Sequence to fold (335 residues):
Amino acid sequence: MRGLQLVPAAVLPAVAGLLLAFLVPFGARGTPPTEADQLPPPSRFTLSNPVVRVPFDHEGRHALIRVHVNGEGPFPFLLDTGASGDGALDWSLVRALSLRRDAEVTIDDGSGLNQRRVPLVEVDALEMGGITFHGARLFVGEIRQIARHVDYPEGGPLGIVGLGLFKDLLLTIDYPESRVEVGAGALREGELHVAPYSLRDGLIYLPLRIGDLDLTACVDTGSQSGLSLPLDFSKRVRCAFTPLVTATARTANNEYEILSSVLKDPLHLAGHSMEGQDVSFNGLFDEATLGYGLLKEYRLTFDQERHLVRLDQRIAAPTEVRRRMPGLRRPARTR
Fold:
């Protein structure tokens, strides 16, 4: 999740869904590896069944999942393939559960600017549904403060679940069915809608084509936008109308403008051809991103051992709802 909240400037109805590019500072994007990228995965995990299915809610153009931390909770966590490592915890949760800081690492928001030192905590048990991760190491930050502009129920996520947790498992994020599936298994290159990906700084980059232009894009489920491109690409791709400033985005370290339009040429991705694709441009990041606005129509399966991703499209995308997640706990206030 490379970016934060957008503050709309002049919203066009046709591109209103592109206004958010929620970027978070947990993980390096497009920069040399930092200490955060070199963290090992959890020491072990346990599954209650060969395939575990965990439901999630669509809130603020994100997938929010229920997570128990050391037996406490459940708490709302954001599912974010754009976060390096195992994930992150909000300071309020760290204090409420009396979690001990393990170390400090250097991170940035992917822009390469204003790197920061943040603490790590090691969690004995991180449980979601029927899967438990032991020894997960999570960054600590002001996640709720970063997300303060998004209309989440009861204040928003208290943590982030990163892709690193599932390094040794087959992970499926099924947006239309609003659930995650985790278990053993493998994808095969050459199968329908299976595409090889490159790995940079612990994050997944898929090849795509816009017209005659070939590029790669980071698969970032923590981004609220759909297809996001660097600002200079606004002169390299054909748009249905001149890109207009529609929002101002903030990361923990930077602020920048978002421009939006619609592609004239089809977007080709993992065997799919998408006509009339919404697109946004920003001047902070030098790489493309595929976020919630595009991915919500698909069932994504990640095989991190073989560096493969499958995108299966469903007939209907999920309804973006606002509802209270039943059974969620909030940390007790501390004086």
